[in-house]
Amino acid sequence: xxxxxxxxxxxxxxxxxxxxxxxxxxxxxxxxxxxxxxxxxxxxxxxxxxxxxxxxxxxxxxxxxxxxxxxxxxxxxxxxxxxxxxxxxxxxxxxxxxxxxxxxxxxxxxxxxxxxxxxxxxxxxxxxxxxxxxxxxxxxxxxxxxxxxxxxxxxxxxxxxxxxxxxxxxxxxxxxxxxxxxxxxxxxxxxxxxxxxxxxxxxxxxxxxxxxx
Length: 213
Fold this sequence. Notes:
This is Vacuolar protein sorting-associated protein 29. By secondary structure, the protein is mainly beta.
């Protein structure tokens, strides 16, 4: 089991001053193996905070990140799952599933993590799984009126199964939802006269709630 934090579009300090305190209580060092960040971290202090939660931090460059040290995209493999990460401003229109599916095919990934919309999404489409963690701070976006709901995601990976837990701060309380996706094995012609075996992945436990640049 691998526990990966999916987070992004923080916009600290330009649009907000910090992560919600209730989120920080959940992000306990030592619980998470890796962080995948969709960008718009914006300041060094926030990047260092992410590194305090997990030493393995992969950040892609958002359209408001001033540093050039972040790549525009990244790919990570947890066999047999291959994950791609982009900010999302490369996708036109932002968040469009057909455009994201084209990027997923170009990157040759099973799961594509992207941001830009400041709205959480976890959906299977065109044979791929797309995850957008939203904005962890609920930073405003000019795309629509109103304040986005602060959110991040934890991705629990075990074999070919990916369980995504979304954490949203709604009316001052953290609410959690679960979305499960399974990578289907490649279809192979059955050998004549030979029995076919099916191996089911192990059940995945819920993650425990703990409390360069």
